[in-house]
Write a structure and sequence with these properties.
The chain is built from ten helices and 13 strands. The protein has helices spanning 28-37, 54-62, 125-134, 147-152, 154-162, 171-178, 183-193, 232-247, 252-269, 283-296; strands spanning 3-6, 10-16, 19-26, 42-49, 66-73, 78-84, 91-97, 117-120, 140-144, 166-170, 197-201, 207-211, 214-218. Strand 8 (117-120), helix 3 and strand 9 (140-144) form a beta-alpha-beta unit. Bound molecules: adenosine monophosphate (AMP). Adenosine monophosphate binds at residues 8, 10, 12, 26-28, 80, 96, 122-123, 146, 148, 230-234.
Length: 301
């Protein structure tokens, strides 16, 4: 099944207790598409400025990612600066410079409007809605967001959520969106907003999938070295949607497998800065952690 992502393509400056990078390749659509590229053909719709290095586009293309929907506009590329403390589950956004995103309106190329699976990665929900108006009956639409939009664009975000099948959020976004401290109640409140599935990412504590029928709880892969959690959520979504696209199956039990593939891709993402941890995986790496995760939470009753 064809997979389309619309999101940010960014130059990120990130500081963690273990080092820092300046203007490194990042953005929600980038982490997502690299993770998904290990499973399926994936196409990106986004915008960059004329300062965006060609080598990054070459890198995405070398991973088989379709960048025909990546427009280059005069101006500077979106920039995001974040700092992590000793607890890598907590981060502060120091600066968000929308730059070319300010005047951006996504144009879905004709050949991509019929994509079966669509991921609305983290961007302004007004733009997510513009995408939903252009795609032709996808089989499944998933959506991510962040506090920046929950606080600044709530009405448009609620309209987007009403129109998607799967909402993918981290734990603090889940609480903030639902205005409810308990994650189970908050997830149920988001189900009431429209989606049939809510996927809550809990960093090193794993992920929780909530549907009207019940729960699926997945542990995180126990990584010994975590350098930079930036993009882990998008990598998770990329592994999740990538597996659904590869298998062509969006049924409940395959969604569980997809959560585990998402968990595996996120685990590689956090091990190095920027996209480096996911830049050259082989299928054996992914299958190895997929199988290991089953063992980590299997027990006899
Ligand atoms: P994650 O760690 O999964 O939340 O994703 C981090 C990525 O999201 C970074 O690479 C940023 O460039 C990107 N990002 C941060 N803030 C925004 C924003 N307001 N809109 C779109 N993308 C963003």
């Amino acid at each position: 099944m064809g997979l389309l992502v619309v999101g940010s393509v960014a130059l990120d400056s990130v500081k963690t207790p273990f080092g820092e990078v300046h203007d490194a390749l990042g953005g929600s659509a980038v982490f997502f598409s690299i993770a998904a590229s290990y499973f399926t053909d994936v196409a990106v719709v986004a915008v960059v400025g004329t300062d965006f290095p060609q080598r990054h586009i070459d890198f995405l293309n070398a991973k088989g990612i379709d960048t025909t929907g990546l427009s280059v506009e005069s101006g500077e590329t979106f920039r995001w600066t974040g700092v992590y403390g000793y607890d890598l589950n907590e981060r502060d956004t120091i600066e968000t410079r929308l730059n070319v995103f300010e005047g951006f309106h996504p144009q879905i190329p004709a050949g991509l409007a019929s994509s079966d699976l669509v991921f609305l990665a983290n961007i302004d929900p007004e733009l997510q809605l513009e995408v939903l108006d252009q795609v032709e009956r996808p089989r499944l639409v998933a959506c991510d967001t962040m506090n920046f939009y929950i606080e600044g664009r709530r009405e448009a975000l609620l309209e987007t959520i009403r129109r998607v099948d799967v909402m993918i959020v981290n734990d603090s976004e889940c609480r903030e969106l639902a205005d409810e401290p308990n994650l189970v109640k908050a997830s149920r409140a988001i189900l009431e907003m429209g989606p049939h599935t809510v996927l809550v990412k809990k960093g090193e504590h794993g992920a929780l999938m909530v549907t009207g029928d019940g729960f699926f709880s997945a542990p995180a892969f126990p990584c010994e070295s975590v350098f930079d959690p930036t993009g882990a959520g998008d990598a998770f979504a990329g592994g999740f949607m990538g597996h659904l696209a590869r298998s062509g199956d969006i049924g409940a039990s395959n969604m569980r497998r997809a959560v585990i593939f998402g968990t595996v891709l996120a685990s590689y993402c956090v091990e190095r800065f920027s996209v480096d941890g996911m830049s050259s995986l082989d299928p054996g790496d992914i299958e190895g952690r997929f199988k290991a995760l089953k063992g980590f939470s299997d027990f006899e009753t």
